[in-house]
Amino acid sequence: MNFDKVLDVRGMACPMPVVKATKALVGMSAGQVLKVVATDSGSVSDMQAFAEATGHELLASEVLGKEFVFFLKK
Length: 74
Hints:
By secondary structure, the protein is of the alpha+beta class. The protein has one domain: Translation Initiation Factor IF3 (2-Layer Sandwich), CATH 3.30.110.40. The chain is built from two helices and four strands, in the order βαβαββ. Strands 1-2-4-3 form a four-stranded mixed β-sheet, covered by helices on one side. Strand 3 (57-64) and strand 4 form a beta hairpin.
């Protein structure tokens, strides 16, 4: 999937992946895609809830080994 920016939040626990994603998306333009790479299993439900609450679109989420990858469209 194409993306405009990568946010590495590996090793960070809740709520930091969502906090960092919020800050990253503020600096992006509408329509751009943020790739988030996390290791906290709680980020799976957190990113879905974050997208729904903020109006960002969760385009995809994947589990790659012990990492969770999300694609959020602003």
